[in-house]
Amino acid sequence: MGFEIDGHTFAVWAGLSRKRKKNSSAGFLKGLLKALSIHQCFTNEVPPTVTGSATSPPSVTPVPPERGNYNVTNANGTVCLLARMGLQLNISYLSTSHGKTVQELMNLHPNITKTSGSCEPDNAKLVLTENNITLTLIFTLNSTLNKYHLSGVELLAALPNMSKTLFVSNTSLNYWVGTLGHSYMCRKEQTLNVTQDFSLNTFELQVQPFGVNGDFGSAEECALDEDDMLIPIIVGAALAVLVLIVILAYLIGRNRSHAGYQTI
């Protein structure tokens, strides 16, 4: 009896023990799920901290430059060179703050840019100065062919972040070829590669360095503008040919249908 009681007691205690273990396992599982949920919540809300070497922020491309009028007058006050364009400088230089070579795009602003230059029978210069930047465009005229072109570009820049003053020059260029008495025009953006450290972007360009008679002469357009005009011409011609083919096919089919009938 006593043994049965002890056995019964033992069995009850074992049952209680199993129940407690079951409840303990369930509680542990619930706690683990809750902890995982909290961890996931913090993982989603708080981004991980990334360590590493600092890098320079990406350069922001400026908006297209404002189009300005840059004219040169000779000694008697007569305009001898006409230029209307937007100008953007693409410069590479050693930066003191970053300790490495950086590339920067800069727009020239017509309202603060000073214009000067000179006009000779077979060469002309347009000098544009804005703060610590001086841009010189050199034009050459071939009097035998009555053709002119942009033969040289020079840049002198002393920006605050430069380790030293930058001077680049190239006098063997062959851009903006035009005829004497006519202007050269290019509405599309052009990139003139001057040196490894400098290129010049132009927007809505029209220039006439020789044979100026008060205003721009008739414009000779660049290949980029001509290509833009050529595309719609080609598309229109293709559509015209397609319409002609449809009409011819209709007429041929109509004649064949009439030929199939015979009079009685």
Automatic annotation (TrEMBL):
Domain annotation Lysosome-associated membrane glycoprotein 2-like luminal: ranges: 65-212
Comp. bias regions, Low complexity: 47-58
Classification via InterPro entries: Lamp2-like_luminal, Lamp2-like_TM, Lysosome-assoc_membr_glycop
Domain of life, source organism: Eukaryota
Keywords attached to this entry: Cell membrane, Disulfide bond, Endosome, Glycoprotein, Lysosome, Membrane, Signal, Transmembrane, Transmembrane helix
Membrane topology of this protein: Single-pass type I membrane protein
Span list, region Disordered: 47-69
Stretches assigned to the Lysosome-associated membrane glycoprotein 2-like transmembrane domain: 231-262
Gene Ontology terms: cellular component: late endosome membrane; lysosomal membrane; plasma membrane
Intracellular or extracellular location(s): Cell membrane; Endosome membrane; Lysosome membrane
Listed PROSITE patterns: LAMP_3
Biological process, per Gene Ontology: establishment of protein localization to organelle
Residues spanning the membrane: 229-252
Family designation: Belongs to the LAMP family.
PANTHER family found in the cross-reference section: LYSOSOME-ASSOCIATED MEMBRANE GLYCOPROTEIN, LYSOSOME-ASSOCIATED MEMBRANE GLYCOPROTEIN 1
The protein, known as: Lysosome-associated membrane glycoprotein 1
Lineage of origin: Eukaryota, Metazoa, Chordata, Craniata, Vertebrata
